């Protein structure tokens, strides 16, 4: 807060004392415009401030714990698992107050970063999220009726990049991600859980990280040294990057006071002891000394770069080929005509494509119709042949049936004749037997 007041006062004094064409006129008495810095400070305090932090790092490096330790509070949130299918960004906004200063703090965490087997596209969701915040602010700026004074600025002001304490070198994932983010956000690299390696290894690890960042062209945030009031401390702190930090919300009694620390069987690591870690340096540089500069760098450097590229893509320019001011109306009309021309061209292409597709479909339908007719003719002929065969079979069966009936009739006739002949023979035999019987009974 003191840094903010100092910057405002310095800006006002420099503006008044070094204005071009200004003539110094002594005042006969006190007027009161020397209270302008106080008015600006009061207005800013009443309005409040916002600050947005992006925490990038693999799961389990203590990102949430460090945020709790930095702001001396307990933010809501649950530990994430290592089974995320992709990288998602989770944003939480909190209202904090210290003395009479209100701060709207937004903490964005990268859930699932580094948990996938294929980490090739892990950075894309982070880049898209940062660009989305820039785009939202740009859309608010381009509105006819703007409300920037009450707009909740969600642009990322600081990116804390958590590096695993391997003691060897940066991972390819870390280098690729930081390279993609350095033109979009202020990157502050920190070595998480630095109590996992010894001091000598930690010093070598810092040198190795710095060397790899330089050799790969990664631009990290440098604390500003142009302000005389903070030039010395910022210059010193730049040499300590990346900060080796330890986070803990647990308090341990050391001597006669309670301090935040991590207790191990071999000893205790005090979070706020500069001989144990760089947590105090990070807190001083991030919150107390350079918070306003981080906000300013986000707006004047990263957002302006995004805005310029976006407007150039839309066809807007500052000057025409003759170095004259470029009319916004002319740009709009030219872009509109270009868009309408492209639209008509695409419409014509789509119409031709539609006609072509219709012709192709008609040809397909005609071919299908022809095949259906041929199939119908084949089936019709086959039906006729089958019908003819059936009729022939029916005729044959009828002939056989008639022949069978004739044979049956002849057989029945023969059977009746045989029965009649058999009957007369039997009668004749009975008469002869009767005669014989009578002759034996009554002999002559």
Describe this structure in words.
By secondary structure, the protein is α/β, with parallel strands linked by helices. The chain has a domain at 44-248 and 278-314: P-loop containing nucleotide triphosphate hydrolases (Rossmann fold, 3-Layer(aba) Sandwich). Helices cover 54% and strands 13% of the residues. The strands form two sheets. The chain has a six-stranded mixed sheet, sandwiched between helices. A hairpin with a 2-residue loop joins β8 (257-264) and β9 (267-270). α1 (2-17) packs antiparallel against α2 and α8 crosses α9. It is elongated and about 190 Å long.
CATH architecture of the domain at 44-248 and 278-314: 3-Layer(aba) Sandwich
Q: DSSP strand (E) fraction?
A: 5-15%
The CATH class of the domain at 44-248 and 278-314 is Alpha Beta
- Structural class, judged by helices and strands? alpha/beta
CATH superfamily of the domain at 44-248 and 278-314: P-loop containing nucleotide triphosphate hydrolases
Secondary structure: helix percent: 40-55%
- CATH topology-level fold name of the domain at 44-248 and 278-314: Rossmann fold
**Helix run count:** 10
Shape: elongated
Strand order of the largest sheet: 2-3-1-4-5-6
Distance between the termini: 177 Å
What is the CA-based Rg, rounded? 50 Å
Q: From N to C, what is the helix and strand string?
A: HHEHEEHEHEHHEEEEHHH
Number of strands: 9
Unreliable spans: 1-18
Q: Give the oligomeric state of the chains in this entry, treating copies of one chain as homo and distinct chains as hetero.
A: single chain
Main beta-sheet annotation: 6 strands, mixed
